[in-house]
Amino acid sequence: MEVIFLGVGEAFDENLSNTSILIRHGTGRSPVNLLLDCGFTAPVKLWREESEPDALDGIWISHFHGDHTFGLPALFVRLWEERRQKELRIIGQKGIETFTLNCLELAYPGFYERLNYPLKFVEVEPGGPTKNFGHTFTTAENSHSVRDLALRIDLEDKSVFYSGDGRPTPESVAMARGCQLIIHEAFAMNNEIPGHGTVTSAIDMAKKCTALNLALVHIQRRIRGKVIAEIEQLKEMAYPVNVFVPEPGERFNL
Fold this sequence. Notes:
This protein is an alpha/beta fold. The protein is built from eight helices and 14 strands. The N and C termini lie close together (5 Å). 43% of the residues are buried.
């Protein structure tokens, strides 16, 4: 399983695209490609990584904020222009279909009827694992200003946790136990900001979960440089978890 950090930024960072992750597994000519979140600045990063219109299999949406969703209309229309034929699966919490189609209608009125490929909407809620593209999906609520579902993906002996936005909850911590890689929002260093995670809370969570690796993303633009400058201290604090701040385009193999 390959994890590609297409974007790692917060909502309003002028230098970094919105946090968006591409999960790829399989070899040969048709690997499975799953996109985690698609904010307003994310599609360009995806197109640079993967220009083949039928390559993307599905999109996971963690919550309904614009920096995680408003890239969807542009992505859909670009795929239409490139003559995509294959079904595209959109996966998220209850209401995912209505929200997505409303976004498309606002951006490009009447375009849903013109798409030359089907959109399939799959609602996923906490309470039990589901299967998508051979992956096992498990979800739990994070603590954010709107309802956010953290996602755990398991494939054979590989496991990835993605927080979306928000602070860890007892449910999300329990779900992340034993993960090989936790990707967590860390908007602030350690001060409490309602609805957002911190570097220290993400490290504490990863240690409690006995995770192997922790990627800190969605860091507030004014403190990201400070976090990077202090990464050796953070690594010491996080030991034995390997903590890192990924750069755009960085790859992590499981």
